[in-house]
Amino acid sequence: MRRMSTDVPAPIDPTALEDLRARIRRELDAGLTPAAQFAVARRGEILLAESFGDATASTRFNVFSCTKALIAGVVWQLIGEGRLSPDTRVGDVVPRVGSEGRDAVAMAAVTLEQVLTHTGGFPYAPLGPPRWATREGRLDAMSRWRLSWEPGTRFEYHATSAHWVAAEMVETVEGADYREVVRRRILEPLGLTGLVLGVPPAEQGDVAELVPVGEPPSEEALVELFGTADVPLLREVTPEALLAFNDPEVRAVGVPGGGALSTAVDLALYYQALLSDPDGLWDPAVLADGTGHVRNRLPNPMTGESASRTLGLVVAGDDGKAFLRGMGHNTSPGAFGHNGAAGQVAWADPATGISFVYLTSGVDRDYLREARRIVGISSRGGALVPPAAS
Asked: Any idea where the domains of the chain sit in the sequence?
């Protein structure tokens, strides 16, 4: 994929661009992020990329759950090669998952589709340091996992647990470390040197330090939005958990559900590959399925709306609720992507052909303000190239 640098960002709308810049600067001026980047790409090229605050063009950010799109990309390749399928049972590939728990039979029957659509039933299965640093440690932890509910019956976001299973399935099928598989199958063919999953501490000098900002929202505000102040996901994806990714050893692990590092440019170019696949990395039918076929319409317990999930990604949808799925108010129903914790934004829109990425190093303790920022940034990103210009 060729990268383009230009001072004339046509067909970007200049008014929309200045609106986006002003929204990002507002975050910096308010002390809510020390560093940020955005990139917008189209037709395999970067139309425009800018850095703010302490960031430079080469600064890499923790992209958190944007990482899930990389794991999905590898799984789609293996499906296209007939080595996995959406119906593949976890127990047929990784028999140790849940094998020592009370739900061994049911855990073994969880399918790859359920894993990647967050309907597997083990959203908070524990796996952290030091066990996550070795394959044997991971398998030992996963052997004790058990179900919280019957697989396939509900949606609840598996922040990290599902993708540990998906990564182990990839590793077993490929006979190689999942991080090496991602590099060999995705990153190297696309020339994405700024995007990496698992990097030695000595090579982390260009990573933006995560900085905590703000104060937690009030219980009253949480109750007003969610109906309760005790939101399970917010107990796992806490500011403290995110700030742990400042540790070079944690970054080196390459957590498959949230450990990648990237520049905005490289992540935007990855989504360009998912839009058109000029290098032929995927079977066309499998890629179309992964980026556009909604397999999970179960309600999201956080919002009450359809989860709108494909085999690995989120689709904006035509119900007017794309803003609840991280894609703002100005994308088409077919836009797809996967955002990350702390306000990372990454999506592509087939209607305009653009991909848009915004990355930040601020970890806002106020989840609600962060959610509003995601809507604001994504909406402005979606307005950069009007449909008429495509």
From this structure: 14-66+194-389, 74-179
- 14-66+194-389 topology per CATH: Beta-lactamase (3.40.710)
What is the model's pTM?
Answer: 0.93
Q: Which residues have CB under 8 Å from 111's CB, separation 6+?
A: 86, 87, 88, 89, 90, 151
**Listed residue (85, 109, 14, 4) closest to 48, CA to CA:** 4
Say what the pLDDT of residue 237 is: 74
What pLDDT, in 10s, does the model give residues 156-185? Answer: 999 999 999 999 999 999 999 999 999 999
Q: What is the mean pLDDT of each run of 10 residues along the chain (390 residues)?
A: 48 93 96 96 96 97 98 98 98 96 95 98 94 96 96 96 98 98 98 96 96 84 59 71 96 97 98 97 98 97 92 97 93 97 97 97 91 95 81
pLDDT in tens, 92-119: 999 999 999 899 999 999 999 999 999 9
Structure tokens at 80: 């296209």
Instruction: Report the amino acid identity of residue 144.
Output: R
Place of tokens 């904006």: 316
* Distance between CA atoms of residues 37 and 176, nearest Å: 33
The dihedral of CA 20, 21, 23, 27: what is its sign? positive
